[in-house]
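Lecture notes, unit on protein representations.

Consider one protein chain, 277 amino acids long.
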Amino acid sequence: MRFAKYQGTGNDFVMVSDLDDSLVLTPSLVRSLCDRRFGIGADGVIRVAPSSRAHFFMDYANADGSPSEMCGNGIRCLAVFARAEGLTSDDVLEVDTRSGVKTVTIEGDSVRVDIGPPVFEPSEIPVKLEGAGPDALQTKLELDEEVYEAAVLSMGNPHAVLFVEDANSAPVTTLGPRLEEHPAFPNKANIEFVAVESAGRITMRVWERGSRETLACGTGACAGAVAARLLRGTDAKVTVGLRGGDLEIEWAGSTIDERPVFMTGTAVEVFTGEIGL
């Protein structure tokens, strides 16, 4: 099987073109491809498949083999990969995902994505809360007699944002996996640890659902920026500093003003090759 390895802000993916729709991404296949010692090594696998309503369908699976609704860094990589493979010559692509069709624009060395508006309705995130109000932005999660306050929302996939003083020292690898599988999240959740540095910059580490800690998470950066704007008064355009680099996030909406979130960042080919299945 021919493949390409791509990374977006350090978030890396195995990319496969499958426009004849013949490859099935079984969990075991995905896990073997993503294995960093016995496989290619990646945070996930993206199969570029046909779509009846867009240029392509992004069939994305996390490193543990579980399917995901959306991947912000991955969709940028898909656009650059599709151009490099000659699958399209367009600068603006419509990409179908499990959370709807997203518009992706290639702008020189950067790729800009219309992620769509954030979702605040608890049942649509989904998050299970007692006496849930119109949103879950101040959710209290109980865990082993401790209570953690999180801003819970969806960017096509579920996120819980925890504000911390210092993202570098946050308990990402210990608290992250426990909150990922918290009973409040029926589909599990991505967990972001966000520190507000200024009105125009936040820093973040993320524990990704199904992929462990990654160097970056595009939808997580969007969730962090939205939560920071609503709860910490940051600007409509912020730079999100991640371990793999920076992403630019723009959102001028509110909980009652539905506007899309825009994400801009790079997508880079690492190498190409062939692997036996």
